[in-house]
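Chain A, query sequence.
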Amino acid sequence: MATSQAPSLGERLVEPVTNISDFIWVGTWNGVEVIPFPPMTIFLLGMGLWIMVGLKFYPILKLGAAIKGLFAGRKSAGEGEISPFAALSTALSGQVGTGNLAGVATAIALGGPGAIFWMWITALFGMALAFAEGSLAIRYRERTSDGVLRGGPMTYIMMGLGKKWTWLAVVFCLGTLFSALVTGNSIQANAVADGLNELFGIEEWLGGLIVAILVFIVIIGGIKSIGNVAEKVVPFMAAAYIVMAVIALILNFGDLGETFALIFHGAFNPQAASGGFVGAAMIIAIRAGVARGLFSNEAGQGSTAIAHAVAQTNDPEQQGRMAMLGTFIDTIVICTMTALVILTVRGDFTAGGEAVLHAWQSDKVGFEMTSGAFAAAFPMMLAGVPIGTLVASIALILFVFTTLLTWSYYGERAITFLYDRMKGSNRAGEKKLHMAWRVLWCVVIFLGAAQPSELVWRLGDISNAAMALPNLLALALLSGVVFKLAKGIKDAGPTHMADTPEEPEEY
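Chain A, predicted structure.
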């Protein structure tokens, strides 16, 4: 008699990890409501609303000025490591990843078309959170003994709130390491291995190895090398992807009205659709949109502040605008393009053996859904592969590659901060630790590429919350400073400084 194979550790972990994720984001356990509201969703949107109102809707009113400032941002105008535009490109390279292609599809699969409305709302409030993070990142920066400026939430907690809040900075850094290894590495490595496999038939472990080597070649040079690559690759890849999506939508222009009707109706009404998605209640649509919106644009998570902190500017307001522009480009522009293509383009799709019109109604999940929609828009074959599949796969590979570069730096900053709390830490020790982290990072890329994705995505939701919660508390405590920075008061708020025997020598 044949015996069934015992489930792997990863498969056994899916259920408990899913329960923790659902409790944090929806307030349910084993599908049963434990809390009558979605905790993380309320906290994230609530903080975004608080900052937005306190800023008097600055992110929306000043969006035009922020776009105009993109060109000025190419010039350095102060101390730092890379230009303000390179800092934005670096932050964007961390933001624009698998969340923009696979994450949007996952949101639609979980919450239906209505999830996209809540993704937009998350992005609007996220622009306020991003402004707060970017401006605080410049207002509070630390200087190492050899003159390098750096920062992020751990630094604006220490310098803006004082030494008694060190525990909050430590909790943020632990959350950052968790999030870096899961969402910044394993999920991305998984997605790029899938893309290489679909395009070239490369085994996933080999795809992981190739990507790990290429990432190591760039990150060995630190933030300047990462910024240099991001500044060249990110604008090109984002523009090319948007152009292809716009062409797909022009070809299917007649169905766009129906798509927007689906999004707005689904945002406020439980709906059942034919095919793979059935009966998503409004709360699930909200959860899917907010969770995937955060995964994509990272607003409120604190990660992009680490990139903006190294910008060559002494103007917190200017870099705050750059940061909020990153959220706008990532979610309002790129994620929306992906969503509209998935929801609008018609093709030969099936669900449970029956023909359906659109990719979102089909059995396809994650990146496969996005790739399928683009393949239906551009079915012409090139080397035996639909041009649409080539476009989506190349975009995914480039998006994910640059995300892996930037998140390696975020993890590096977190691990450095924790090391600097130890007695006797010094700059030489930091540099050795950086090298060890970069090697470990590339090993995890190789290992993560071949892992099943369901567990990693659920862990991603938990790790994002672990990073966002301490940062959102810091933003709440420093919100008064943020409101003054938006008025152009560059030295707003107290600066808590203390001499330390470790790195940096002064906080």
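Residues 271-280 have pLDDT under 50 and may be disordered. The chain has one domain: 15-27+34-72+81-486.
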